Every structure is written in C-alpha cells, then in structure tokens.
From TrEMBL:
This is Major Facilitator Superfamily protein. It holds the Pfam family MFS_1. One of its GO terms (molecular function) is transmembrane transporter activity. Residues 1-444 form the Major facilitator superfamily (MFS) profile domain.
Amino acid sequence: MCAALVSAAVVTLGGPLVPQVQQSFGVGTEASQWSYTITLLVGATLTPLLGRLADGRRRRPAMIVVCALVTLGCAVSALGTRYGVFLTGRAFQGVAVALVAMTIACARDLFTGPATARLIALLSITTALGVGAAYPLTTFVADHLGLRAAYGGAALLSLLVTLAVAGGLPAVAARDGDPRLDVPGAVVLIAATACALLAISQGNAWGWTSAGVAALAAAAAVLLLAWIRLELRVPHPLVELRLFARRDVLAAHLTGLLMGVSLYNTPVLITRIGLAPRDTSYGVGLGLSAIGVVMAPIAVCNYLSSRGATALARARGRRIALAAGGVVGALGPLMLIGVDGHLSLLLASVVLTSCGAGATFGTLPGLIVDAVEPGETGSATSVNILLRAVGGAVGSAATAALVGAAAGPGGQTTSTGLAWAALACAGTCVASVVVSGCVPSRRRRTASHAVAVEPVPLPRTD
C-alpha cells in the first residue's frame, strides 16, 4: 500500500506544479507541460515489462529497483538547475506508474479469499488516493519552500518506501509456472508506445502534417502490428492478447484508456484555472497552498465512490457501475467551462471528477482478475495501468496542444483553450460510458477465477 500510494503521489506530483515549473525555469506553456507528460510517457512504455516481472520470482528485486529509481529521479529533479536535468529526473520517476500493477500481483499471490478482492480494489484506486493525499502537502511545501523542497521531500519519502519494500516484501519462491520474460516483445512495445506518444506530444510544436510527426506515427503503427504478430506466436508473451477476446477484459482496458485522460489532466486544468488571476475572465485567483486545499477532497471522494460502486456492482452489475462512473466523471471537467472566478464550480469539478474516477477504477480490477489465471495477474493489470498512463500522456499532450492552439497575445492562456481541453476530458468520459455497454450484464462464476467472484466492499476504517 505504501509503495502504491507513493508511486501515485510522485507520478502526479507534476500536475499542480506545472505553472510553477513554467515560472521557475522560464519556459513556455507547452514546454512546462512536458514536466508532466514525460513521466506518464515513460510509465506507459515500461509498465508492461515491469508488470510481467511482478508475476514471478523477480518481483521483489524488480520492485526494489523501481522504488530506487523513483528516489533517484526525485533527487535529480530537486537538485537540477537546468530544465533538461529536471526533466530527466521526471523521466526516472515515470517507472513508478508500474508499481500499482506490481502491488496488485503481490495481493493476488500473497492473499486468499475475500481479503484479496478488498485489497485489489483498494490498490486500484491508489492513484487517485495518492493525488488527494499529496496535493495539499506538495502545494504547501512548493508555495512556501519552493520547487526544490517539494521534490526533495518526495525523494526522502521514496527512499523510506524503498527501504520498507526491501525489508518487508517477501521473496517469491521459484516455481515451474514462472513466466519467461519476453524481451523482444518488450523492446518492440516500448518502441511503438514511445513513437506514438512522441507524435502526439510534438504535434502542435512540429505541425500535425509535418514529416517528423508523420514518420513517428507510421513507425508506431508498423511496430504495433509487428508486436501483435510477435505476441501471438511466442510461447510466453509479454501480454496475453488472446484475453482481449473476452468482452469484459476488452471493456476494462478501453475504459482505463479513456478515463485516464480525465483522471490525469482535469486536475491540471483545475490548477491552471485556480491559480489564474480573476482579471483573466476565467481565473479564481487562488494561491498554490489554497489549490492544495481545494484538491483535498479527492482522496475521500475516491474512497467513498469506490465503495459505492462496489455496492452498485453487487446490486445491478458492473456494467451499471462503470457507466455511472463515466457519467459522473464527465460532469467534472464540464464544471470548468465558464468558471469565471466561482470557487464553488472549481470545488464541484474536483468532487465530480474524483467520484467518477473512484467508481470506475474501483470496478475495473474485478473484471480483469476474474478473467486471468493468478500467474497472469501482474501482466494483465499492467496493461490496464499502461492504458491509463497512455490516456494520461495523450490527454496531457492534447491539453497542451489545445491550450496552445487558442493562446492569446504573448502566448497567454485563454478561456477558449481551457474550454476545449475540458470538453476533450469530458468527451473521453462519455466514450467510456458507451464502452461499458460491452460488459456482460451478469458475471460468470468460474472455479479457476473464484478470487473475485462476489464483489466485496472495501474494509471499514474502524
């Protein structure tokens, strides 16, 4: 739980600090957004490989190395005096994205019975819980002590978690069913994902019809097709693509991709709008510490909405629970259109966005866990985490592109650009509602996947 929470806090650390990064390093809007995008890009490319490592005896050393790299990345960002060095640190921090999938594999392997379903549901929403816990503290430290202090504190916290994982996570005994690592598949998938995300990220800067963007997009398509062909032929694939033939698994992955756009990027829009002066026609005029207070309900709303979604799934089915999460999540970014200085609308956006994310991501793991064998849990859930991060990276790049395309004189952010970005986040949530219709209305009970046959509510805090 500590590893998953810290990973979420570190990954989303760049969100509320994007405006301060822009001011501290003297870079433009799109360049400063890269301090957030690059972490998601690295996380998206490496998560499948690290998730596969979590399915066997390599789990413990892999998690220790990942936590150590996160610590190193935070230290580099804290000490870097140039923007390039700062970005390098943020890139190292991206490996933290994989920790959620790795901890879910631990829960599936080390626990049995109802405790497994409870813990997996809780681990699945740690991304949002980490955001809610980290935002107030991060913004307060950055506001009063500066950007370096915020990342220095994250480095210290990550170091403590690294020591805790090294001392507390049990080793996994070797077994006949341990999956072999598909190195060629990992390399090809990393290359394909990197090309695709770079094409989207640089589209606004290079031009969407430029030769560079076209070449990256073509390379991503060719590499992806080659990877699919490779994964269908190797005996121990990095990702078991045949599982995508199941409607519940396919729906879970598409929903993760679509909802990831809003999960990672609506808070960035809230921060920009909240920090903007009132004379901008859209700003609320808050300080950075006040933004952290506004974000504080995220953790509570995610936790409560996850419990509510579990109860709804038990009563009406997971299809209804996923659809409800998408509808509520779409209302969040829509609240940002026409804020015009109203703090109440900003708070409403925070509550609705976090409730939608909690309901959705609290429901998804059960769809996946029911469909796969225990030895495939890390790999399968890592694909879902990968797609969330891909959605976040695509959304981050699209947000920067939309805001930049509608920039005013001197590159100033305008209400039009923010409205376009908010509509994009809301649109992906609506699309996830459509995808939820692919989920079977009634769950099939199977003996081999009995770990999460009955939805179980999250544990009581008392």
